[in-house]
């Protein structure tokens, strides 16, 4: 069956023609024509998620894994405002998300009708393309039919080609629920024009040849981007030092994976830290997690910075000279092979390896804490091809201090780096992936997005690990008086909540651990039981976590 409303038919038919299969729907009335069109057509995979903020992040997680557009559909009014956190994340993480919002007819906006707001252009600052369809009241209105075809095709093409969110606002007049057995019109596909660059500018090649210290930073990358042969080529140049972040999904013996572990101990020793200062910086991937490397490269005024790849180029260090829009693999293969004499790579790899040896002494005497919990968590993860989703704030920063398992694929919402929607995104990823998904997060992030568990699609092998330190522990690392009512209420947000009752309400198997000696048994149970989703809550002492982490860097220094 199809909706009787003609422009709803256009959306359904063009989505089918363009291969947009996955539709996350939040229940409502004004979006009934599209809900009918999608849910009554076997081509589409439809999911009902009540909470719009969760629904949009679920769609985000699905699109993240599938690397193709996923649509999210809501009714009119405040519903689409709840999509905004996921829209901004999709914008900065460059994930193709298609927002479909139902609306009242234009003449009913701002006259006091229920569930009406000014929906057109509501995402103006964080959207790649925003449009409103024309209402089709007659099959004879060929001009409006052609206009809508062009607008829908352009939205889909933009989401695919520019890797980000688009918004189609669709006004509907009642009656909304009428159906027809066959569509009343046909649709025309407007194909995407591909324009790929494959050239590296000569000016860059000359700078590359002359630079004695080249720093390559690998940030968020959806694998596969490099294979080992590419990394061998890149690191065979002694003047090239490669640093990777946890979400780069790059593991190589000549790549520094612990940026903060390298930089923090020498941060204030100017004579030594200046030796790390590069002549040329190359960034590949999305947002950079490490605050220390950003501060360092700004402080010493990076000379020249290029960004490589199709992802958006940011002037992170205020020295962006150009954006080389070729695939990173092709960029590596086209680099000059006449290497300059330099000890840049060897020197800093040696420093890093020394720190890794030295830190074992610190780990041996480290008390039970967030840091100690993470030291146990990462080696305990299944040694197979899992998808590892990381929450923001403390979780991703602690993860940066450990080398990831090469068989794991790591994701995190590092576009806006917010805590909202991390659980929903991980669940969306699990819904779209044929691999096991493990999600590690903090307590505030988990409780903030607790409606994510109000979901009928969570796979039985989905695992959640919540680090509960009774508040926003990351704020204790920042300067300020920590043992005051003001700090504990408005910054740290101290609490006594646990996830036990949430898990019981939503049918998630629950267990907890609060000491090191019991961790191994709890973790083994977490990963061997697949009779429904599992959650392990790890309790750590609130007041020592910041000291344990800060003392780590002091110890290395």
TrEMBL record:
Pathway in which this enzyme or protein is active: Quinol/quinone metabolism; menaquinone biosynthesis; Quinol/quinone metabolism; 1,4-dihydroxy-2-naphthoate biosynthesis; 1,4-dihydroxy-2-naphthoate from chorismate: step 2/7
Annotated EC: 2.2.1.9
Residues in Thiamine pyrophosphate enzyme N-terminal TPP-binding domain copies: 8-115
InterPro entries (UniProt xref): MenaQ_synth_MenD (IPR004433), THDP-binding (IPR029061), Thiamin_PyroP_enz_TPP-bd_dom (IPR012001), TPP_enzyme_TPP-bd (IPR011766)
UniProt similarity note: Belongs to the TPP enzyme family. MenD subfamily.
Subunit structure: Homodimer.
Entry protein name: 2-succinyl-5-enolpyruvyl-6-hydroxy-3-cyclohexene-1-carboxylate synthase
Gene that encodes it: menD
């Amino acid at each position: 069956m199809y909706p009787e409303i003609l422009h709803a038919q256009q959306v359904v038919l063009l989505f089918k023609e363009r291969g947009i299969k996955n539709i996350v729907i939040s229940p409502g009335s004004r979006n009934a024509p599209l809900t009918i069109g999608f849910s009554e057509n076997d081509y589409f995979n439809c999911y009902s998620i009540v909470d719009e903020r969760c629904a949009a992040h679920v769609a985000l997680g699905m699109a993240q894994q599938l690397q193709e557009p996923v649509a999210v559909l809501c009714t009119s009014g405040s519903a689409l405002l709840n999509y905004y956190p996921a829209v901004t994340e999709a914008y900065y993480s460059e994930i193709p998300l298609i927002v479909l919002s139902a609306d009242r007819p234009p003449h009913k906006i701002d006259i006091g009708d229920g569930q009406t707001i000014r929906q057109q252009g509501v995402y103006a600052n964080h959207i790649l393309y925003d449009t409103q369809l024309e209402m089709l009241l007659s099959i004879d209105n060929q001009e409006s039919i052609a206009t809508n075809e062009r607008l829908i095709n352009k939205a889909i093409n933009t989401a695919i080609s520019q890797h980000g969110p688009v918004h189609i606002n669709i006004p509907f007049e009642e009656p909304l629920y009428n159906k027809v057995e066959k569509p009343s019109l046909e649709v025309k596909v407007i194909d995407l024009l591909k324009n790929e660059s494959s050239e590296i500018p000569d000016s860059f090649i000359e700078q590359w040849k002359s630079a004695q210290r080249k720093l390559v930073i690998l940030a968020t990358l959806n694998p596969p981007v490099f294979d080992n042969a590419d990394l061998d080529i890149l690191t065979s140049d002694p003047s090239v030092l490669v640093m990777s972040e946890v979400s780069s999904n790059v593991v190589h013996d000549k790549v520094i994976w612990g940026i903060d572990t390298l930089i923090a101990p020498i941060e204030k020793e100017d004579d030594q830290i200046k030796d790390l200062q590069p002549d040329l910086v190359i960034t590949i991937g999305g947002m950079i997690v490490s605050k220390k490397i950003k501060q360092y490269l700004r402080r010493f005024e990076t000379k020249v910075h290029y960004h490589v790849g199709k992802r958006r180029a940011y002037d992170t260090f205020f020295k962006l000279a150009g954006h080389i829009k070729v695939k990173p693999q092709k960029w590596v293969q086209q680099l000059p092979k006449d290497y300059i004499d330099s000890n840049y790579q060897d020197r800093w790899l040696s420093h890093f390896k020394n720190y890794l040896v030295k830190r074992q002494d610190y780990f041996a005497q480290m008390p039970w804490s967030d840091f100690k919990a993470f030291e146990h968590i990462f080696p305990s993860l299944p040694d197979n091809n899992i998808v590892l989703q990381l929450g923001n704030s403390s979780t991703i920063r602690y993860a940066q201090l450990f080398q990831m398992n090469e068989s794991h694929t790591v994701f995190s919402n590092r576009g806006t780096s917010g805590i909202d929607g991390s659980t929903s995104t991980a669940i969306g990823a699990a819904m779209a992936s044929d691999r096991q998904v493990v999600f590690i997060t903090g307590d505030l992030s988990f409780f903030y997005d607790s409606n994510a568990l109000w979901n009928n699609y969570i796979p039985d092998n989905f695992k959640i690990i919540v680090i509960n330190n009774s508040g926003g522990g990351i704020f204790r690392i920042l300067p300020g008086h920590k043992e005051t009512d003001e700090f504990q209420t408005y910054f740290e947000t101290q609490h006594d909540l646990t996830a036990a009752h949430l898990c019981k309400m939503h049918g998630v198997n629950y267990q907890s651990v609060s000491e090191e000696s019991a961790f191994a048994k709890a973790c083994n149970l977490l990963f061997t039981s697949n009779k429904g989703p599992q959650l392990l809550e790890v309790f750590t002492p609130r007041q020592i976590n910041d000291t344990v982490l800060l003392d780590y860097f002091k110890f290395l220094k």
